[in-house]
Design brief:
The chain has 268 residues and is an all-alpha fold. It has helices at residues 13-24, 30-34, 41-56, 60-83, 89-103, 105-108, 116-131, 136-141, 149-162, 170-190, 193-213, 218-242, 252-267. The longest helix is centred in the C-terminal third of the chain and has 25 residues, at 218-242. The termini are far apart.
Length: 268
């Protein structure tokens, strides 16, 4: 038997709240009713990445739809807490409004900030004060472990830099990469898997540091390089097929030649 709900030509946030409450009710949807914060946490990540995909594709329709899916995740988590009497969507909106007002004193108060850098400085200053962070180590520890590794590394380095712990210029960061590569070579010669993993991580961390000096987003740069590899490899397979070459059986010299050919074609 269907629940009573008014059909409309245009729904609002209040309607969304009502729908989520209905879905989680005893006579609502069995799947929605049994979900917990932990059972759907991966859904939140997936929906967020689908928003990013829509942005990258510059799809307005896709962005509207995927933002709605992210909002659904937010509403489900809110409803779970409302059921426990902890907070509801209104409480989240209230807290967010207060935070935005406090962290924008250059808009809602008399603090001066005439450019983006000054705005970011004010934001960080207010954020650290309101969160009671008096040491850089506490700031670094608060950066979520769940962030993608490259993104987290770059964020950690950026925060550490603001405390003065940084190279004076990019040459120091570049030299550090070579130093870490030498240590990785030593680890490989020792054939110690734990040592190899440690040193390999240090190489990646040093590469991220160079990216930061170059104002390059490490996460986006690696994504672009991975996409580029896929395009080139796809073309290598096509070229091999045209020449009657088996990619699985061909010697590395032949594959390298096909790779160079594909690289030239895609560069045209």
């Amino acid at each position: 038997m269907a629940v009573e709900f008014e059909r409309k030509d245009k729904y609002s946030i209040d309607d969304l709240i009502s729908i989520i409450t209905i879905l989680r009710a005893p006579d609502g949807c069995p799947w929605d009713r049994e979900q917990t914060h932990f059972s759907i946490k991966k859904n939140f990540i997936e929906e967020t990445y689908e928003v990013i995909e829509a942005i990258n594709k510059e799809s307005v329709d896709g962005l509207r739809e995927e933002l709605g899916d992210v909002l659904l995740q937010i509403m489900l988590h809110c409803e779970m807490e409302r059921e426990q009497g902890n907070f509801d969507f209104g409480d989240i909106c209230d807290e967010l409004c207060r935070k935005l007002i406090i962290r924008h004193p250059h808009v809602f108060s008399n603090v001066e900030a005439s450019n983006v850098q000054e705005v970011l400085s004010v934001w960080d200053s207010v954020k650290q004060k309101t969160k009671g962070r008096d040491k850089c180590s506490r700031i670094l520890s608060d950066i979520p472990l769940e962030l993608p590794a490259l993104m987290r590394a770059q964020k950690v380095q950026s925060k550490a830099s603001k405390s003065g712990f940084d190279w004076q210029n990019i040459s120091g960061a570049l030299n550090k990469i070579q130093e870490e590569i030498n240590e990785l070579n030593n680890a490989v010669s020792h054939k110690s898997q734990q040592e190899i993993e440690d040193e390999f991580g240090d190489v990646l961390f040093s590469c991220v540091n160079v990216a930061r000096f170059l104002s390059v987003d490490s996460e986006e740069a690696l994504k672009a390089s991975t996409d580029k590899f896929i395009k080139r490899f796809t073309l290598v397979e096509q070229l091999a097929e045209e020449k009657g070459i088996s990619v699985n059986d061909a010697p590395l010299e032949i594959l390298d030649a096909l790779w160079d050919e594909a690289k030239e074609i895609l560069a045209e």
